[in-house]
Design goal:
Elements lengths: L1 E8 L5 H9 L3 H9 L3 E7 L4 E8 L2 H9 L2 H10 L25
Antiparallel strand pairs: 1-3, 2-3
Length: 105
């Protein structure tokens, strides 16, 4: 299982709403993520809108591609896109994995 971490930036003026939306992620979206290979998926945010995402998956690109094929993901990404800064396209396309430099198992 591969650990993946990524960073995104939410507009500060939209952060409270972003948090509210993620407190109620649609059941179909949650199911699609699990079925597409996204495991132990978490999002963290600071007060400036820096969002850190973490997940575990066998193959990140395959998991992203599987989600991209779902209708629920297209709707979710369209609704979430206005929350982000510095993205050209959908938020899920802006997830660039960070390089792991240390892990203590």
């Amino acid at each position: 299982m591969r650990r993946v971490c990524f960073v995104l930036k939410v507009r500060e003026d939209r952060l409270a709403e972003y948090r509210r939306r993620h407190a109620q992620v649609w059941p179909r979206m949650r199911r699609a993520l699990s079925e597409s290979g996204w495991h132990n998926y978490s999002l963290f945010a600071d007060e400036r809108g820096m969002v850190i995402g973490y997940l575990e998956t066998e193959d990140f690109e395959a998991a992203r591609e599987a989600m991209a094929r779902t209708e629920v993901n297209a709707r979710w990404q369209a609704e979430m896109a206005p929350f982000f800064e510095g993205l050209d396209g959908r938020p899920d396309e802006g997830m660039i994995p960070l390089t792991e430099i240390f892990h203590l198992p």
